Amino acid sequence: MHEIIKNLESAKHKINEKIKLSEKNIKQPTIIAISKTFSLDQINPLIEAGHTHFGENKVQEAENKWDKTLMNKHSLKLHMVGGLQSNKAKKAVQIFDYIHSLDNLRLAKKLHLAEEELNKHLKYFVQVNLGNEAQKSGVPENDLEKFIQTLRRDFKLNVIGLMCLPPQNEKSEIYFKKLREFAIKHNLNDLSMGMSHDYLVALDFGSSFLRLGTCIFGERKP
């Protein structure tokens, strides 16, 4: 068995054990294999093993890497997990099935126009800046309600959930709990939270999409 497949199976085993032993009603999450910076040759063992959800953080890289593969493998689902510039919105709608980083109205308008033009509708997560970190993208907590209302009313975008990137060197639990509370308040079913270092913690707070890169593919080259 290929090393990458072993890593994925190991993560699945840990998740299933967590679900089985937990007293909470944890739902089975979708694992997004974060394949950014890795070549298609390195990713192919997972595709051949039947894994379908992959994540990229740059539109150009995703286009170069996945274009032909997506045409031939319609079961694959591609997630945009990095920051998205509004001038790349149309291309993003062409390539991706999910956007995890929707965080401003200018981008929302461009995505809406692209969806109308291409007759394709994606699933969106609103990125929330829970730590109020100046260097991070995301909608501030106080603006979230109005932002979601505008996405739904004015741009008819299919917002399915919320996403966050907890500040480094702080306990993820605080931010996962807060994001879950916001999701409940806004009647959103999905949460994109939990990475290689804290995905088991994220399950305790209802994460439905885990973004796993290092624990599947190994360390990225700088």
Descriptive account of the structure:
This protein is α/β, with parallel strands linked by helices and 222 residues long. The chain has one domain: TIM Barrel, CATH 3.20.20.10. The protein contains nine helices and nine strands. It has helices spanning 3-21, 40-48, 59-72, 89-95, 105-118, 144-153, 172-185, 199-203, 214-217, and strands spanning 30-34, 53-56, 77-80, 98-102, 123-129, 139-140, 159-163, 190-192, 209-212. Strands 1, 2, 3, 4, 5, 6, 7, 8 and 9 form a nine-stranded parallel beta sheet that branches. Strand 3 (77-80), helix 4 (89-95) and strand 4 form a beta-alpha-beta unit. It is globular and about 50 Å long.
Architecture blueprint of SSEs:
Blueprint: H1 3-21, E1 30-34, H2 40-48, E2 53-56, H3 59-72, E3 77-80, H4 89-95, E4 98-102, H5 105-118, E5 123-129, E6 139-140, H6 144-153, E7 159-163, H7 172-185, E8 190-192, H8 199-203, E9 209-212, H9 214-217
Parallel strand pairs: 1-2, 1-9, 2-3, 3-4, 4-5, 5-6, 5-7, 7-8
Helix pairs in contact: 4-5
